[in-house]
Specification:
Layout: H1 3-11, E1 13-18, E2 21-27, H2 33-44, E3 55-57, E4 61-64, E5 94-97, E6 110-113, E7 126-132, H3 134-137, E8 158-161
Antiparallel strand pairs: 1-2, 1-8, 2-7, 3-4, 4-6, 5-6, 5-7
Length: about 160
């Protein structure tokens, strides 16, 4: 790999530190450039540090990115328009932008899939992939019932840009 390619890879890599270990996430600006830019901006500001995985459904996904930890909050940045794709699928370790019923309401909340969730394809913005540390994602405390609300949730210790 050339130095330029390595630098580009690091520019689109995020380290997510959980209590159980470090997770490496590779962003996909080829699929969702605006969403990746928003995530990188928020990560660089330390926005995600201390956020809880407040909604976690076993066998499906873990959601975070709301500093109020209620599922109703976001960042002060404007919402990002939907960037749906048919070029990739929501497989194990995929990251997607959470949203309301309005497809253009993604802001700061995102989820990580525990298992394939291809029913989300072309309905949610897929913007990244866990490439290392999925075993630590699997250790995120699961919620109860269909709401997935978690008591004593797992917190993000630190989320940082690799470059």
């Amino acid at each position: 790999m050339s130095e330029t390619a390595a630098a580009a890879d690091l520019a689109n890599t995020i380290y997510l530190t959980l209590p159980s270990g470090r997770v490496t996430i590779v962003l996909r600006p080829d699929l969702a450039p605006k969403t990746c830019a928003q995530i990188k901006t928020l990560t660089g500001q330390g926005f995600y540090n201390g956020c809880e995985f407040f909604r976690v459904i076993a066998g499906f996904m873990a959601q975070t990115g709301d500093p109020s930890n209620t599922g109703t909050g976001g960042s002060p940045l404007p919402n990002v328009p939907a960037e749906f794709t048919t070029k990739a699928s929501f497989l194990t370790g995929a990251l997607g932008m959470a949203r309301t019923n309005d497809p253009n309401s993604g802001n700061s909340q995102f989820f990580i899939c525990f298992a394939p969730a291809t029913f989300l394809d072309d309905k949610y913005t897929l913007f990244g992939q866990v490439t290392e540390g999925m075993e630590f994602v699997d250790q995120i405390k699961k919620g109860q019932g269909q709401s997935g609300r978690v008591t004593d949730p797992t917190k993000i210790i630190k989320m940082e840009l690799a470059a």
